[in-house]
Design goal:
- The complex is a heterodimer.
- By secondary structure, chain A is an all-alpha fold.
- Chain A has helices spanning 2-10, 12-29, 37-47, 51-60, 69-101.
- Chain A has 2 domains: 1-31; 36-104.
- Chain A starts with a helix and ends with a helix.
- In chain A, helix 4 (51-60) packs antiparallel against helix 5.
- By secondary structure, chain B is of the alpha/beta class.
- In chain B, the strands form 2 sheets. Chain B has a 6-stranded parallel beta sheet.
- Classes of the chains: A mainly alpha, B alpha/beta.
- The interface between A and B is large, with 81 and 115 residues.
Chain lengths: 104, 480
């Protein structure tokens, strides 16, 4: 019990962010028409590519002088993250472009 | 930039670090704003752009302003390496996203989701050895990021394989128990690592075992799921990737990552639940239930004659109707017949026939997949009716054309309690005056459930590839 409370106190700001973001995500999405389910899912998928920041930090502070397993994995994380971000946003845009065309 | 401008909680900070945090705040706001705009048809594209701008901003400022715990920024050499690899990833991501066919979109979203999960998994894997023994909070989030990321990665890859037809559905009765067992030992090992007082570097064996277990669980969990449940799984995996990214955000104390990740997690979860509701099933039922296990029920109770309709008759029937509904399914997408569908629709409209499309929420392989495909063929989205609206108009409809759809019009969902899709809302085509089903053969749909609609007296079959049949039908109507 004490340990749980300590954890809560230590991370209270983040836990607030989590609680509010959950609510925000639900609110933002709840009225979406079925037409947009696929683009929305794809767009959200691209946003989950924020993990790329982790990749940048990892490779940014790693030692480049030796080719270690850690470095290779870090670079892999960076490339995967980029794929998620760039691919995700471009695919979403391509889907939405088609809706746009019909608008007069 | 490196000028120290203050101390908060005993930590000195510079102009650069405060600017970095400010940019993260802006990025997080852009994510929320973008997602908000994405949920309205008129503003969706702009929303995607804003979210992408937020991402670009966060990436750029991290590259230029990030400092590690000892206050060192990212060295110039590292910046170049990062730019090169981001460039490489961008080029691949961009080209594939531009080149892929619209029908293969669900597969691609699955793959990109897998890469996100893999990135989270790798980040957690690499950060774990740097954690301080006994720091339960940061070890907890690292382990969660690792496990959730790994499940999202391997699960999405299997989902990709299934959507692409490379992996079949494998469902054995023992798998439910095996999966439960896997989940329990994954959980137990996670607790062991989190609670262990040993320094993380002594626990690497456990970490690698845990990674393997989570990867295996991802595979095993998606393996038995198939049929109409696929969209639900993709959406769920998408939510998981978001949560994994948020966990990594905790490792770095990065609020943009936490907010962005959780936002995707909760939005994805709501979308998943919306889809489950559309099929009248609970999420638990989708995950542990077996789909298509009890097929072959009820099909022998009716007379099994199938009536075909000649092309010319179909053409006349359609031309002299007042209201026609088209019910598209995945078969339409596979045959790449969406453009022809639109051609038929404009042709009939020219003859004064009102043509609309009835879109089932889970038609296709992803929610809204049909809408995207029809939009690609220039069908205005005002003509795409959602299921409930379409069902209200069914009784006044002269002809319903079912193109490559099966399960979403199966009356067994309403009248056969033994059917695995019993209770799923369907498009009530039987209420219309006439039905024409375009189908390649009498084979069952993706969910492998027999469909009595085909034998109904109101129904006529038009056999053949959707594209070829539509082509002939269009030509027939033109020559009338």
């Amino acid at each position: 019990m004490e340990q749980v409370l300590t954890l809560f106190f230590e991370y209270k700001e983040s836990i607030f962010i989590i609680a509010l973001s959950i609510f925000l995500g639900v609110e933002v999405i709840s009225n979406v028409p079925a037409v947009l389910h696929t683009p929305l899912m794809s767009g959200a998928n691209a946003i989950s590519g924020v993990i790329i920041i982790g990749g940048i930090i990892l490779v940014g502070h790693s030692d480049l002088s030796t080719l270690s397993v850690d470095l290779v994995l870090g670079i892999l994380a960076l490339v995967f993250g980029t794929l998620n971000v760039v691919g995700g946003f471009v695919v979403t845009d391509r889907m939405l472009e088609m809706f746009k065309k019909r608008k007069k | 930039m490196d000028k120290i401008i203050g101390i908060v909680n005993g930590v000195e900070f510079t102009i650069g670090t405060s600017l970095l945090e400010l940019s993260y705040l802006l990025a997080a706001l852009l994510f929320v704003y973008g997602l908000k705009l994405l949920s309205h048809p008129d503003t969706a594209r702009k929303g995607n752009m804003w979210a992408a701008t937020g991402m670009g901003l966060a990436m750029l400022t991290t590259l230029l302003l990030h400092k590690n715990s000892s206050g060192e920024g990212i060295a110039l050499m590292n910046i170049w390496v990062i730019i090169v690899f981001i460039g490489l990833g961008s080029a691949i991501g961009w080209i594939v996203a531009r080149k892929v066919k619209m029908t293969a979109m669900p597969q691609l979203v699955s793959v990109y989701n897998a890469t996100g999960g893999a990135a989270s998994m790798l980040v957690a894997l690499l950060e774990y050895p740097h954690a301080v023994a006994g720091d339960i909070g940061s070890i907890l989030v690292t382990i969660l990021g690792l496990v959730i990321g790994a499940i999202a990665f391997s699960g999405s890859m299997i989902a990709y394989g299934k959507l692409d037809g490379k992996v079949g559905d494998i469902m054995k009765p023992f798998m439910t128990y095996l999966n439960l067992f896997l989940l329990v030992i994954t959980f137990a090992l996670s607790i062991y690592i989190i609670a262990s007082p040993l320094p993380p570097t002594d626990l690497m064996w456990a970490l690698y075992t845990l990674t393997a277990l989570a990867l295996l669980y991802g595979v095993m969990f998606v393996m038995p799921i198939g049929g109409a449940d696929m969209p639900v799984v993709i959406s769920l995996l998408n939510a998981l990737t978001g949560v994994a990214a948020a966990m990594a955000g905790f490792i770095y104390g990065n609020q943009a990552m936490i907010l962005g990740g959780i936002l995707v997690g909760s939005a994805g979860m709501i979308l998943t639940i919306l889809m489950c509701n559309a099929m009248n099933r609970s999420l638990l039922n989708v995950i542990i239930g077996s789909f298509g296990g009890s097929s072959g029920v009820g099909s022998d109770s009716v007379d099994q004659t199938v009536r075909e309709i000649a092309l010319s008759d179909a053409a006349i029937l359609l031309s002299y109707s007042q209201k026609v509904y088209i019910v598209p399914g995945y078969g339409l997408a596979v045959a790449q017949a969406q453009h022809l569908c639109h051609e038929l629709d404009t042709l009939l409209e020219g003859k004064g026939v009102e043509v609309k499309y009835a879109i089932h929420p889970v038609a296709g392989r992803m929610p809204g997949h049909m809408n995207v495909l029809l939009a690609e063929a220039d069908v205005p989205y005002e003509k795409l009716m959602e299921m409930d609206d379409a069902n209200q108009e069914m009784a006044n409809t002269d002809v319903v054309i079912v193109v490559g759809a099966n399960d979403v019009v199966n009356p067994a969902a309403e009248d056969d309690p033994a059917s695995p899709i019993y209770g799923m809302p369907i498009i009530k085509v039987l209420e219309a005056k006439n039905i024409i089903v375009m189908k390649r053969s009498m084979a069952t749909g993706y969910a492998a459930i027999p469909n009595n609609l085909f034998y109904h007296p109101k129904n006529r079959m038009l056999f053949g590839d959707a594209k070829a049949t539509l082509q002939k039908l269009v030509a027939e109507i033109k020559s009338m």
